[in-house]
Each structure stands twice: as C-alpha cells, then as structure tokens.
Design goal:
alpha/beta; 20 strands; about 190 residues; UDP N-Acetylglucosamine Acyltransferase, domain 1; 8-stranded mixed β-sheet; 6-stranded parallel β-sheet; globular
Length: about 190
C-alpha cells in the first residue's frame, strides 16, 4: 500500500517537471532529474513504463522516449545534448545510455568541474565537455548491463546483447555483442 502511494506521488511530481503522456507508468525505482528545469526537455510518450533514471544536465539535454517503451530497473539515460528513443524499445535493467562524457577529459578541468558541481550544482555553460546525440530507432532490444555511448545510432529492430558496450553505429536488423560491441549477424 505504501509503495503504491509513493508511486502515485512520484508520478504526479514527474508530470510537473517533464512532458509525460497520461498512460505512462512509473514503477518502483523510477527517477526523473531535470537539472535543465525545462519541462520540454524530457518527453515520454504513451504506454511506456519507467523503472530507471532519466536525467538532463543544467547546460542542456533533451530526452525523447517513444510509445510502448520500457526502461529497466537501475538503468540510466543521461543527456547533455539529445537522446531520442523510438517506439517499442526495450531497455533491460542496469543499462546506461549517455550522450556525453559527463566530465572534461583534461584532469585539471575535470577537477575544477567537480568543485563547481560540489559547491553550487551543475553549471549552465560547459564548453569543455564533449557530447553527441544518441538515436535508438523503433523495435530495438537492449540487453541488461549494456552501455550506449555518445554519437551512436542503433538501427531499427536491432538487438544489443547483454553486457555490450556500443561505441559505433549499429545497422538495422543486426545483433551486436561485446566490448566494444561487434556485429554478430543480421536478424531476419
């Protein structure tokens, strides 16, 4: 009973900070962090189910999740630029999708960036952090414990095997696996 009430409260709060269809379900573990503080930065279409974390950074980011999608428990989608997920995409538990490095590569800049975050939260302007959109087309299945990195497009109806690290584009109807992910075979 208490868990059900918490889910209702979270759902109401999430709808205040993001654009969410009325038929979206939030289950235990769901979290939306909209540091950008723009309701249009996070859009979730109807019939999707969210159990993981969705986050936009203060300096930018947009996350669009299509219809009938599933974001598994312990999974994260973090955006500083754009993450677009098509319809009927299944993202298994403990998967991470990032369109950004999150921190500068230079050690001095990285330390300064961390100090700013620690003292006053995420900065609004960041030029030293690289980002590039992530596009996941319709009907994709991403297995558990996978990582999808910036600048990647995953083609329609592809499968990302559990534990894969995707650093390059995946053609449509393709099974990839490994670290880094490599094409295993096409899917008919």
């Amino acid at each position: 009973m208490i868990e059900a009430l918490q889910n209702i409260a979270n759902s109401a709060y999430f709808r205040e900070i993001a654009t969410i269809d009325k038929d979206v379900k939030f289950l235990k573990g769901a979290k939306i962090v909209n540091i950008l503080n723009d309701k249009r930065a996070i859009v979730i279409a109807r019939y999707s189910t969210i159990r993981g974390e969705i986050l936009t950074f203060g300096h930018g980011g947009k996350i669009e999740i299509g219809e009938w999608c599933y974001l598994g428990e312990g999974s994260r989608i973090w955006s500083a630029e754009k993450v677009k997920i098509g319809n009927k995409v299944l993202i298994a538990h403990n998967t991470n999708i990032y369109d950004t490095n999150s921190h500068p590569l230079n050690s001095r800049e990285r330390h300064e960036h961390f100090m700013v975050i620690s003292k006053s939260g995420h900065p609004k302007n960041i030029s030293c952090i690289k980002s590039s959109p992530v596009i996941i087309e319709d009907d994709v299945w991403i297995g558990c414990d996978s990582v999808i990195l910036k600048g990647v497009t995953i083609g329609q109806a592809s499968i990302i095997a559990a534990g894969s690290v995707v650093t390059k584009n995946v053609p449509p109807n393709t099974l990839v696996a490994g670290n880094p992910a490599k094409i295993i075979h096409s899917i008919e």
